[in-house]
Amino acid sequence: MIRTPSDADSGTILEFLDVAFAPSQYESTLRPSIMNIERPHWEWLAEHDDRIVGHILYTLANDDSGTSIGYHLAPVAIHPDYQKRGLGTQLIRETLTSEALASESIFVLGDPQFYERFGFVKTTSAQCPFDKNNQHFRALHWQDRERPFNIGYEAAFS
User: Fold this and answer.
1) Domain span at 151
2) What is the number of domains present in the chain?
3) Cα separation of 37 and 117, whole Å?
């Protein structure tokens, strides 16, 4: 089952992120920072037997003038015990087609082969500050602009 989280899920989500990204705790410190900003973001959980087994978060993407141009997909996580079962694919597909995101440009930094399955393509205008030469940076529903620019992330990502 895929659902939006409630306030009661917060502690469980942080524990889940620590397990999913172990030994990194960056993602579990990132989430509270995102939740404290008053800008739009979207978040979903995947559950199995009343247990969180997946998590996905989308935060605003900006151009160099600060104008919102879509959303970043990051992070996405599947519990290690549930990986390689198609759950991550299902979570991404369902959220990308949600009413909130279906018509938005979405940007992602990750395995190009994985994300290209969803229609993400390499972008030449939006330059990712975390990926020299944009080798792993992809976009969905994005029309490249003439002039390259550094895409902006929420401050919590820096």
Assistant:
1) 2-157
2) 1
3) 31
